[in-house]
């Protein structure tokens, strides 16, 4: 009977050791879960900030593109007007030379 009691005591000790081992493993996993949840929370906060920043940059970029397009349009219109002025100046110069020659011939 004493040997059965010793066997039961050994089984009991082994069972307690296994339960403690399982609790240790559970605690290790629980710490990992807490760390992962903290990391997840941080990443979600960062993502929210980055998403907001991206929206701000996209809005700013759209405004700048609109402004650039207005500059392009103004430059094109100004260059076209300048070319008309050059053509008019050329025509005026030709008329002036012709009239000067005509006046010189009348003398």
How would you sum up this structure in a few lines?
The protein has 107 residues and is mainly alpha-helical. The protein has one helix at residues 2-106.
Q: What is the share of helical residues? A: over 70%
Helix-strand pattern, N to C?
A: H
- Average pLDDT metric: 94
Number of H- or I-type helical stretches: 1
Q: Briefly note the structural class of the backbone.
A: mainly alpha
What is the terminal-to-terminal distance?
A: 155 Å
Instruction: Classify the beta-strand content into a percent band.
Output: under 5%
The number of distinct β-strands equals 0
Rg on CA atoms, Å: 45 Å
Largest sheet: none
Uncertain stretches of 5 or more adjacent residues? none
Name the assembly state.
Answer: single chain
Basic shape: rod-shaped
């Amino acid at each position: 009977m004493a040997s059965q009691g010793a066997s039961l005591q050994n089984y009991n000790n082994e069972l307690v050791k296994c339960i403690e081992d399982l609790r240790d493993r559970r605690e290790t996993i629980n710490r990992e879960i807490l760390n992962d949840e903290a990391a997840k929370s941080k990443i979600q906060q960062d993502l929210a900030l980055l998403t907001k920043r991206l929206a701000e940059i996209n809005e700013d970029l759209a405004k700048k593109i609109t402004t650039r397009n207005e500059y392009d349009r103004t430059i094109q219109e100004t260059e076209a007007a300048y070319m008309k002025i050059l053509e008019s100046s050329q025509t005026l110069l030709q008329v002036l030379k012709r009239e000067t020659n005509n006046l010189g011939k009348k003398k």
